[in-house]
Amino acid sequence: xxxxxxxxxxxxxxxxxxxxxxxxxxxxxxxxxxxxxxxxxxxxxxxxxxxxxxxxxxxxxxxxxxxxxxxxxxxxxxxxxxxxxxxxxxxxxxxxxxxxxxxxxxxxxxxxxxxxxxxxxxxxxxxxxxxxxxxxxxxxxxxxxxxxxxxxxxxxxxxxxxxxxxxxxxxxxxxxxxxxxxxxxxxxxxxxxxxxxxxxxxxxxxxxxxxxxxxxxxxxxxxxxxxxxxxxxxxxxxxxxxxxxxxxxxxxxxxxxxxxxxxxxxxxxxxxxxxxxxxxxxxxxxxxxxxxxxx
Length: 295
Fold this sequence. Notes:
- There is one protein chain.
- By secondary structure, the chain is an alpha+beta fold.
- It has a domain of 106 residues: 2-Layer Sandwich (Arylsulfatase, C-terminal domain), CATH 3.30.1120.
- It has a four-stranded antiparallel sheet, with helices on one face. A two-stranded antiparallel sheet has the order 1-2.
- Helix 6 crosses helix 7.
- The two termini are 41 Å apart.
């Protein structure tokens, strides 16, 4: 197993890209600082890609065709609406599998798999038996081209990542829709990024706050990042950035009720207690960044 720190922050200071030519996600505020950080982020991704290629070539030299190469990431990038969120930009990660003679090269699949499925898949490939009672399901048939689908639903969770990212939420996603419960909607959604604002990591947040003072659209983006409703529901076919909350749309109430019931049943099955080790930040008080400055 080989792990690469990139593109985790702090990002490289040597940018391979011209910030002015890059396309930013539509959910970002377009500032000079944002573009510079985005270029640094892309540069680290390029470095990680190159390293992955070197590891792959080493594996081929060492094992010939008798190896399985799996590449993935643990979460999305450290950006608003990405990491520390349950939107696809934070939970939909790359997965590349090479298995000479078994997996056809250069093909893609829309099958939904979860990280917990990797373990039983590798065990089945090795002709070993998976332990009883695990949640993972082998997707070997998908790799061999015998199946086009795998999971019908994917469940994701977030509670906290130390004291700066205290915001519990749960979600369920199928091939088209996603339903999210924000368990403490009367508190700020916040994390290391908008609190610490470090060079080569998240200093662009200063420019976002400045833009929000004069630009209504920028102000709305900042507000949507900090304050979340109790429930969210998205049609991913038409809203891939998950910005149009359809939770009150009459046309989707049956689907919402079904997914709400499914998610709550899954939480109960998992023994989800929603226990937090640190206190969240109520929206009746100062923002987490303001508190950090005061401290």
